[in-house]
């Protein structure tokens, strides 16, 4: 298994000590993975919407589909989501959860009067992605490793964090006083705990058009303006709960205040302002309102990230003394990320009161790229990581819609299978979703749609090193979307 997710940005801190950059493939992946989108009808059908797309959600699925709309339609909606994470860490399980509520969609679809065929414009707002995540862990690591040891060494001479905190000291040549290396008397056997909270969003302001160029054949395009925010706040503690490093052991032999080590604490914050753009083109063929076939290509998204990266650290000793990282690390930077192409293909059929649909999406995650903001050598190294770790992923979407006889009510259900972008990942790391929903259209004027999605998958992360301080995460998510529409 080649997957390696650093659950804290602590590893990024180590990188920053060496190169003044703290960005790696996780940043590119965060922006490249598709969100769930925000249309209730589409979500309740498992997002199998490439061959349908005949509402405001078509702006993000397949802009050609809005050509099927023949009346002016106004849309709006809200989204509730919760993220739950049961984390196992050295035989101890800790639960964490986080939820959010937001306005997630509004827009207008406007067909122009034409003599033949259709010509439809649309514009709208969609909250395309929610970064809501959380994780906590707490357990005793009986191994001879620790974050303190990881952060100690001559590669950190520029920012000797453990030295400043009284956790390590310099070894020098006794004759020449020449610096040799940093060392620490800490040798594992510490309780490790911490957590990470992530929040933020990605918004798309979309402008789209669809034209029926031949009977039943539509071509459309969307241009999206991207904006958003992202914040990751990580806490990490190492505590001497078993009094291994007691009152008779100063961690710095030249400083008696460093006797009786108690706690090491590290906090890092990544704060982004996001902006960018992307576009999408699509085609759709509608055969007698019975069968529809659609395809779309979302071109790469181009993001500019304005990042503030903050690191604080503290240590505490039984002597009553404590030390803080002074000054704290504050590293603002601006850089650009380019995401992969997304290829979607779908088909649907309507049989009496039942419509069934299926989609497949293809993404080559090795196309992720840092394009600006770093020197050539750093970009090349990050690209090698991306090439080595990632693969082409296939996402599958299936759904059905049933019209209840004699009632203006539609029942819907669907399933999504989103393959992990990491090469060689087993299936438990793939994201699975079950979806259901219901919709109604009153007097062919007022529409109300509700969708619920339940998703589950597994994940893991390393606080440092490889599989020496690893969290095993069992994740489930809940999404509830409410949309309304008015037809003029």
Describe the structure in your own words:
By secondary structure, the protein is mainly beta. It has one domain: Porin. The protein contains 7 helices and 22 strands. The strands form 2 sheets. The protein has a 14-stranded antiparallel beta barrel with strand order 1-2-3-7-8-9-10-15-16-18-19-20-21-22. The chain has a two-stranded antiparallel sheet with strand order 5-6. A hairpin with a 7-residue loop joins strand 2 and strand 3. It is elongated. The N terminus is likely disordered.
Q: Layout of SSEs?
A:
Layout lengths: L9 H10 L5 H8 L7 H5 L13 H4 L11 E17 L2 E20 L7 E12 L2 E9 L5 H4 L10 H4 L4 E4 L6 E5 L6 E25 L2 E23 L21 E27 L3 E8 L3 E16 L4 E3 L4 E2 L2 E6 L3 E10 L2 E11 L4 E4 L3 H14 L2 E12 L5 E10 L12 E12 L3 E17 L7 E18 L1
Antiparallel strand pairs: 1-2, 1-22, 2-3, 3-7, 4-7, 5-6, 7-8, 8-9, 9-10, 9-11, 10-15, 11-12, 11-13, 11-14, 14-17, 15-16, 16-18, 18-19, 19-20, 20-21, 21-22
CATH homologous superfamily designation? Outer membrane protein transport protein (OMPP1/FadL/TodX)
Give the low-pLDDT segments: 1-21
Q: How many H/I helices?
A: 7
Strand content: over 45%
Radius of gyration (Å): 26 Å
Q: What is the strand tally? A: 22
Order of helices and strands: HHHHEEEEHHEEEEEEEEEEEEEHEEEEE
Strand order across the biggest sheet? 1-2-3-7-8-9-10-15-16-18-19-20-21-22
Query: Considering DSSP H and I runs of 4 or more, what fraction of the residues is helical?
Result: 10-25%
Number of domains: 1
Q: How far from one another are the termini?
A: 55 Å
Averaged pLDDT: 92
Main sheet characteristics: 14 strands, antiparallel, barrel
Q: Structural class, please?
A: mainly beta
CATH class: Mainly Beta
| Form type | elongated
CATH architecture: Beta Barrel
The name of the CATH topology is Porin
């Amino acid at each position: 298994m080649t997957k390696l997710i650093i659950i804290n940005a602590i590893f990024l801190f180590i990188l920053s000590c060496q190169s003044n950059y703290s960005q790696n493939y996780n940043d590119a992946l965060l922006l490249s993975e598709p969100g769930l989108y925000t249309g209730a009808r589409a979500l309740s059908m498992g997002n199998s919407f490439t061959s349908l797309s005949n509402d405001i959600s078509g702006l993000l699925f397949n802009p050609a589909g809005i050509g099927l709309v023949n009346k002016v339609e106004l849309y709006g909606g809200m989204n509730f989501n919760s993220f739950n994470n049961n984390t196992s860490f050295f035989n101890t399980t800790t639960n964490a959860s986080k939820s959010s509520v937001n306005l997630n969609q509004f827009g207008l679809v406007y067909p122009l009067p034409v003599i033949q065929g259709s010509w439809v414009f649309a514009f709208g707002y969609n909250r395309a992605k929610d970064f809501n995540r959380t994780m906590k862990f707490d357990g005793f690591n009986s191994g001879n490793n620790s974050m303190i040891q990881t952060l100690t060494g001559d590669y950190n001479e520029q920012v000797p964090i453990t030295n400043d905190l009284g956790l390590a000291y310099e070894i020098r040549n006794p004759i020449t006083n020449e610096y040799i290396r940093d060392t620490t008397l800490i040798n594992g056997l510490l309780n490790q705990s911490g957590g990470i909270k992530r929040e933020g969003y990605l918004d798309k302001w979309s402008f789209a058009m669809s034209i029926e160029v031949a009977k039943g054949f539509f071509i459309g395009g969307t241009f999206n303006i991207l904006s958003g925010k992202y914040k990751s706040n990580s806490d990490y503690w190492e505590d001497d709960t078993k009094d291994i490093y007691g009152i008779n052991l100063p961690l710095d032999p030249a400083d008696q205040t460093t006797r009786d080590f108690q706690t090491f604490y590290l906090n890092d914050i990544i704060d982004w302002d996001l902006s960018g753009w992307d576009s999408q083109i699509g085609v759709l063929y509608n055969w007698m309102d019975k069968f529809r076939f659609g395809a779309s290509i979302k071109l790469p998204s181009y993001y500019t990230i304005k990042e503030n990266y903050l690191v604080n650290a503290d240590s505490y000793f039984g002597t009553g003394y404590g030390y803080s990282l002074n000054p704290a690390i504050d590293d603002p930077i601006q850089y650009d990320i380019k995401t992969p192409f997304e290829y979607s293909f779908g088909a649907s059929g309507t049989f009496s009161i039942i419509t069934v649909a299926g989609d497949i999406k293809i993404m080559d995650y090795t196309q992720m790229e840092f394009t600006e903001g770093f020197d050539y050598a750093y970009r090349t190294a990050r690209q090698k990581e991306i090439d080595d770790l990632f693969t082409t992923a296939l996402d599958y979407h299936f759904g059905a819609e049933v019209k209840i006889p004699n009632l203006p009510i539609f029942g819907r259900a669907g399933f999504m299978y989103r393959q992990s972008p990491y090469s060689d990942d087993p299936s438990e790391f793939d994201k699975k979703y079950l979806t259901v929903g219901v919709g109604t259209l009153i007097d062919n004027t007022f529409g109300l749609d509700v969708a619920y999605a339940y998703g589950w998958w597994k994940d893991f992360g390393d606080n440092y090193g490889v599989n020496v301080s690893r969290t095993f995460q069992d994740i489930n998510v809940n999404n509830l979307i409410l949309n309304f529409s008015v037809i003029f």
